[in-house]
Amino acid sequence: MRRGRFFAYAPLVVWVAVILFLGSGSGSMAQTSRFIKPLIEFFFPDASPDTFLLVHAFIRKAAHFVEYAILAFLAARAFSNSPELTLRKFWIPFSFAAVCIVAGTDEINQSFQSSRTSSGWDVLLDIGGGAFALAVFATNRKRRRQPDLKSTAPQFSK
User: Fold this and answer.
1) Are residues 88 and 141 in contact, defined by beta-carbon separation less than 8 angstroms?
2) Which of 113, 140, 108 is nearest to 123 (CA)?
3) What gap in Å lies between CA 39 and CA 76, rounded to an integer?
4) What are the backbone angles phi and psi of residue 156, rounded to the nearest 5°?
5) Residue 158 has pLDDT above 80, yes or no
6) Confidence class of residue 28 from pLDDT cuts 50, 70 and 90?
7) Could you give the C-alpha distances from 104 to 107, 117, 124, 143, 157, in angstroms and in order?
8) What is the pLDDT of residues 102-147, one digit of tens each?
9) pTM across the whole model
10) How far apart are CA 33 and CA 27, in angstroms?
11) pLDDT tens for residues 43-85?
């Protein structure tokens, strides 16, 4: 039982830690440009500095969406299979709340750092990524639980 809970919740806790680490100065634009800039230069060797900034900003915003989609998936995975009945029954609201709390906490932490900027738009982008992942998770879960009508239909032979 404990082992099952550990494997259900450990990835969620680790991912929250990763998000909060990336929300620190270690995830600032100056830091991420160290590995994003060579990639942009490889794919766009003649890119102007303005183009570089635009592509870099796009990659960072896409990362927000993906980070929180992963967070929502891990929360949904943990809560939907929880031994706790309330979490299992209301896994969508609990997963969504986890995404909102982490997104808000991350932006509040960024507001206290000189190398970072805090933005309500980022929170909305984070929540959008989480909501997208929850919708996909719920749709796949619903499909897996519906019986295949073709396999349950009576078969008639000639």
Assistant:
1) no
2) 108
3) 33
4) -110, 135
5) no
6) low
7) 5, 13, 10, 32, 61
8) 999 999 988 887 777 778 898 999 999 999 999 999 999 888 876 6
9) 0.82
10) 10
11) 888 888 888 888 888 888 898 899 999 999 999 999 998 888 9
| Residue 19: closest CA among 56, 63, 55 | 63
Is residue 142 within 8 A of residue 131, CB to CB? The reply is no
* CA–CA gap between residue 138 and residue 75 (Å, rounded): 12
- 59-67 long-range Cβ contacts below 8 angstroms, 24+ apart: 60/29, 60/32, 61/122, 61/125, 64/122, 64/125, 64/126, 64/129, 65/125, 65/126, 65/128, 65/129, 65/132, 66/129, 67/18, 67/19, 67/22, 67/126, 67/129
CA-wise closest residue to 91 among 104, 82, 103:
82
CA distance 83 to 150: 33
How many C-beta atoms surround the C-beta of residue 98 within 10 A? Answer: 21
